[in-house]
Specification:
- The chain contains four helices and seven strands.
- The chain is an alpha+beta fold.
- The two termini are about 30 Å apart.
- It binds zinc ion.
């Protein structure tokens, strides 16, 4: 029998883009002279606004913890499934279905209400052109223009951590907050982090824990 799901942590915060941030849209051919169709920003199909997929935030937090704790082998995510692993119980053991599902849900991050008002007045992407240099000839070939979400954009981040009976959820939460801090200080979101894209700042971080039994459609009453 599985362990009982007893509590739930909810973490909310804002993600502010310090640099332009590049999260790619889906495929397509090369658009000569314009933005490469492969390099357009990922947009919500309903609102047309850019967003940060929860999966890419989650993947980044996971890889930060894996690197810090020396988990995962040859570039593959950790799949040990051990209850003491700083990665597997929270993020799920990679391709190891017997080891239990991920306790962490990371929602897609859309614009905050406040930033959305700014965006509506001036919905402009940064266009950044990068050259690849031909090393033999020293010439630039293949300049590619990509769309980036502009610096100053603010997204609403939300994560949920499910707590099962017997979990050391304080340590799990501490690891997650630490990974967010490392992301802010020394890493980046989206593509091109080593070339000056995707630096972010976490603002207004808040967390609350609720017993699952107290959750109602009107929202849970936070535990003291
Ligand atoms: Zn593991």
């Amino acid at each position: 029998m599985g362990k009982r799901w007893t509590d739930v942590w909810k973490m909310i915060f804002e993600i502010e883009c310090v640099d332009g941030l590049r999260v790619g849209g889906s495929g397509g051919g090369l658009e000569i002279g314009g933005v490469d169709a492969n390099l357009t920003a990922l947009k919500d199909p309903i609102t047309g606004e850019p967003y940060l997929p929860g999966s890419s935030i989650k993947g980044k937090l996971r890889s930060i913890l894996e690197r810090e704790h020396g988990r995962g082998v040859r570039g593959e995510p950790c799949k040990c499934g051990e209850s003491t692993c700083p990665v597997c119980p929270v993020f799920g053991a990679h391709k190891n279905t017997g080891a239990g599902a991920s306790r962490l849900i990371v929602r897609d991050a859309h614009f905050t209400e406040e930033y959305r008002e700014n965006w509506k007045k001036n919905p402009v992407y940064e266009e950044k052109t990068e050259n690849t240099i031909n090393r033999d000839r020293g010439t630039a070939n293949n300049p590619r223009t990509q769309q980036r979400v502009p610096a100053g954009a603010v997204f609403a981040g939300e994560m949920v951590l499910k707590v099962l009976e017997g979990d050391d959820d304080r340590t799990m939460l501490k690891n997650l907050k630490h990974a967010l801090a490392v992301l802010q200080e020394f890493d980046s979101l989206g593509a091109g982090g080593s070339r000056g894209s995707g630096r972010i700042r976490i603002r207004d971080y808040k967390e609350e824990k609720n017993a699952l039994k107290d959750v109602t459609l009107g929202g849970a009453t936070p535990k003291k």
